[in-house]
Amino acid sequence: MPRPLAIVTGASSGIGYELAKLAAQDGYDLVVAADRPELGQAAQDFRALGAEVEAVQVDLSTTEGVDRLCDALRGRPVEVLCANAGHGLGHGFLDQDFAEARHVVDTNIVGTIYLIQKVGRDMRARNAGKILVTGSIAGFMPGSFQAVYNGTKAFINSFAFALRNELKDTEVTITDLMPGATETEFFERADLMDTKVGQAKKDDPAMVAEVGWKAMKNGEGDVVAGWKNKLQSAIANVTPAGMLAEQHRKQAEPGSGKA
């Protein structure tokens, strides 16, 4: 019997890399995608775990990039989609290069929902499949000095719950993984290393991926990784938005990490 197929985006490092490892260990073959050259080495690591792996280095902020990823499926049914690709951008919104801000929106939202629609339609037609979306507890709070990123994650969290409800009468499940700050390349890439959140201790991406993978396999609707993040998300739900924005400012404002 052929092994089932999983797609993992953002698989070159961090949470996506760990999700792809879990998929390979769980008996899945892989189509992995990222916009980073490190994807090639990551794919070798996944092959060493027994998976057949096709690696597609592509910009998932574009519909053309998503189409290239889907072409790599060659018509094979997808049992699991881990829509994990995403990145952030620090500093005040009015100081950001708009092309960079738009790339965050196009990667985190446009490319993500386009991929989910393309793969999800086939899953619905087969009445089988699991989708894990990487949202964030950042989606619960206005992200001063990360305004665009937090806004995209608010969208993704909301979108995942809505799509799950639309599919409630099918065997296709949607799970929203909501991590907090995780030890990945995210903070360096987003130019947040001089902030409190950039310098603070963060969660292990392997732990976050395992929490998400288990929740997805169990068909759960959402999961927050880590007890501190569970507490933070619960508090955010009852805290005024203005207060949350000020709290976020203290963590993400440029220079806040200086002694």
TrEMBL record:
The keyword Amino-acid biosynthesis does not apply. CDD domains: SDR_c. Keywords: Oxidoreductase. It comes from the Bacteria. SUPFAM superfamilies: NAD(P)-binding Rossmann-fold domains. One of its GO terms (molecular function) is oxidoreductase activity. Belongs to the short-chain dehydrogenases/reductases (SDR) family. This is Short-chain dehydrogenase/reductase SDR. It comes from Rubellimicrobium mesophilum DSM 19309.
